[in-house]
Design goal:
By secondary structure, the chain is α/β, with parallel strands linked by helices. It is built from 14 helices and 10 strands. α8 packs parallel to α9. It is globular. The structure holds L-rhamnitol and zinc ion.
Length: 413
């Protein structure tokens, strides 16, 4: 332990905060890191373009072109991240040995290489059916009026559920299966009920195949709009919140998926009064669902604070951003470390004391203390945490990324 940490520890002690306990709690937080930052949501099926109203912008060199490159890049990112994390895969990242399987015919064996990868590194795996970047997803998926198309995507959901179950069985840790579909309307639809009724039936058929709820957490991710789907999103927040509550599954809140002045931090405690868990996609939306890299900004801090207040075991925590304009490994590292720093700030807050001040309506004191806490020496505690986890604390970690870029990424043409 360095002198600076010792000094910081004393400063926090004065407000009743135990820095050692905060470090220990942070070390126990697993974040499900999205694989898709490494290749701009490309996947391995040779998809020509990213569809579904989401977009990766930028042309920074060095994106992963195949499973080996993506795995090596994830390794590099993990080596610079403190803590033990999870990996979040999309169905479009299946690895085919001989014959290719379409999305509705995916099997656990198509993800065996990922399971081997996860086992070797002690990672848990989460999963997402991919309802975009496919010719059958041009119009709509689970809400489609074309019964053949809808059946195809229902089978994809069912196949994905089995794959998540396989992950849980192989790795001995529950797997989250997050369902997000892009279905929606550019112009005001003439009928909003029909598509939603079909989506409801499709979800019933997917979870209706039965699964072990202690092994797979099925989540549904709502959205307010996507590019080309500005007027109506079939899978809206109200739709999924009700669906999840009635069917014993969970909501996933992506903080890029609400109106800009809505705050996911404010939604977490409400959700948890009615559900034992809530799932999150932490991202940074700049003017729209732009999926910028997470930074240590007010929204992230607010979300992290609510996670800590709720209890770390109540929130299924994942990242979701894709920036192709900067080094992709640095993007992962900055994003995950920023989220961890936000959690540390929350863990270093005298939460009981702050609550008491609120309950006693000592609101001036509450404001004064909170403002003072902002300049407490969190950086010294962060450094101690990184060192205890064997990773570089300061900005020097970037040299490792630069070196990797020179030796590997720059050779990818
Ligand atoms: C899209 C959703 C969704 C995707 C990933 C790739 O708006 O946020 O979670 O980003 O599934
Ligand atoms: Zn998301």
């Amino acid at each position: 332990m360095g002198e600076r940490y010792d000094a910081a520890k004393e400063i926090y002690k004065k407000v009743g905060v135990d820095t050692d306990a905060a470090i220990k709690a942070l070390a126990g937080v697993s974040i499900s890191i999205h694989c898709w930052q490494g290749d701009d949501v490309g996947g391995f099926e040779g998809a020509k373009a990213l569809s579904g109203g989401i977009q990766t912008t930028g042309n920074y060199p060095g994106k992963a072109r195949n499973p080996d490159e993506l795995m090596a890049d994830i390794d590099k990112a993990l080596s610079l991240l403190p803590g033990k994390h999870r990996l979040n895969l999309h169905a479009s990242y299946a690895i085919f040995e001989d014959e290719i399987a379409d999305r509705d015919a995916l099997l656990p064996k198509h993800f065996k290489k990922w399971v081997d990868y996860a086992k070797e590194r002690g990672l848990g795996l989460d999963f997402n059916p991919t309802y975009f970047s496919h010719d059958k997803a041009d119009n709509a998926t689970l809400s489609s009026e074309d019964e053949e198309i809808r059946a195809f995507w229902i089978r994809h959901g069912q196949a994905s559920l089995r794959i998540a179950e396989y992950f849980a069985n192989e790795l001995g840790t529950p797997s989250t299966l997050d369902i997000w579909i892009p279905d929606g309307w550019k112009e005001t639809p003439a009928d909003r009920t029909g598509p939603r009724a079909r989506l409801k039936d499709s979800l019933d058929q997917i979870i209706g195949i039965g699964y072990d709820k202690s092994k797979v957490y099925v989540t549904v991710e709502s959205k307010v709009f996507g590019i080309g789907m500005e007027s109506c999103t079939v899978g809206s927040h109200e739709f999924y919140m009700n669906y999840a509550a009635k069917n014993g599954i969970y909501c996933l809140l992506d903080n890029g998926h609400y109106h800009p002045t809505e705050r996911v931090g404010d939604k977490i405690p409400s959700m948890l009064l009615f559900s034992d868990k809530v799932a999150l996609h932490v991202t940074r939306a700049v003017r729209w669902d732009s999926d910028h890299v997470i930074l240590l900004d007010d929204e992230t801090k607010d979300i992290a604070n609510e996670i800590v207040l709720a209890g770390l075991d109540k929130v299924i925590l994942a990242t979701d951003f894709f920036d192709a304009s900067i080094n992709r490994i640095a993007a992962w590292v900055v994003g995950v470390r920023s989220l961890q720093k936000a959690l540390l700030l929350a863990l270093l807050s005298p939460q009981e004391q702050l609550k008491k001040l609120q309950d006693e309506r000592r609101l001036t004191e509450l404001m004064v203390l909170r403002e003072e806490l902002k300049t407490f020496p969190v950086g010294d505690v962060w450094s101690e945490f990184c060192e205890s986890q064997g990773v570089i604390p300061g900005f020097e970690w970037f040299s490792a990324v630069e070196e990797y870029e020179k030796e590997h990424l720059s050779l990818r043409k």
